[in-house]
Design goal:
This protein is mainly α. 70% of the residues lie in helices and 0% in strands. It is built from 5 helices and no strands. The protein is elongated, with a radius of gyration of 15 Å. The two termini are 23 Å apart.
């Protein structure tokens, strides 16, 4: 009986997953969409990552939509986010990064 192991998570996905909370905490929230896209595309290969990547993308899409659609005068997404929202967005990124990292082994 042969047991096949699932494909390992690529380094690009791991780096992108850890880049999201770093970018959000570093006030580059709008640019964090790039590593979120990398994590989303990388999650297509691993079924366990799909839920985590989709949840992170949903958080990003929700925050981005409220900033763009609302009557905000904030010049950037980072300035629009309250400290609580920044902490929650960063925490969501850390949770996804830990989930992706744990499954990489």
């Amino acid at each position: 009986m042969t047991v096949t192991t699932p494909p390992r998570t690529s380094k690009a996905v791991l780096v992108a997953a850890w880049a999201v909370p770093v970018m959000v905490a570093g006030q580059f929230a709008l640019l964090s969409g790039v590593p979120i896209a990398v994590v989303l595309i990388g999650s297509l290969r691993r079924r366990e990552h799909r839920l985590w990547a989709a949840a992170l993308a949903a958080v990003y899409a929700g925050v981005l939509t409220t900033w763009l659609a609302g009557p905000s005068t904030a010049p950037s997404l980072s300035k629009y986010l309250s400290p609580v929202a920044t902490a929650l967005f960063t925490a969501a990124g850390v949770v996804v990064a830990v989930a992706v990292s744990r499954r990489a082994r």
